[in-house]
Design goal:
This protein has 107 residues and is α+β, with helices and mostly antiparallel strands. The chain has 3 helices and 6 strands. Helix 1 packs antiparallel against helix 3. The longest helix is centred in the last third of the chain and has 10 residues. The chain starts with 6 loop residues before the first strand and ends with a strand.
Length: 107
């Protein structure tokens, strides 16, 4: 993931049935590339704009996920995002128990 920098996002497709997110991008030499996220549990993209540029994709710590996303989790909990859970600890336990990782996309 460390070779991501100044890459233009052309489009992305979310395949819910197969739990894949395919992102088509273009590097500074205008060479098309593909970034694939497989077996995702949940995702949240906001403020998608044409000509967005990727600066980095970093692995986040699962323990800090709930703290960093407290406002989003509180807002979406009634809509069962990212899942139906009673306490945030239950959500973290599920994420860790299923070996999910947090990927942070900076653009």
């Amino acid at each position: 993931m460390s070779k991501i920098h100044d890459i233009k996002i052309l489009n992305y497709q979310i395949d819910f049935e197969n739990s894949k997110i395919e992102m088509k991008v273009e590097n500074v030499q205008e060479k098309p590339l593909k970034i694939l996220f497989e077996d995702f549990f949940a995702f949240h993209f906001e403020n998608q704009l044409p000509d967005s540029i990727l600066f980095d994709i970093a692995k986040g710590e699962v323990d800090s996920f709930a703290l960093e996303n407290k406002e989003l989790l509180d807002k979406e909990k009634d809509y069962l995002w990212p899942m139906d859970y009673e306490k945030v600890e239950d959500l973290i336990k599920y994420i860790e128990g299923n070996n999910y990782h947090q990927c942070k996309i900076y653009s």
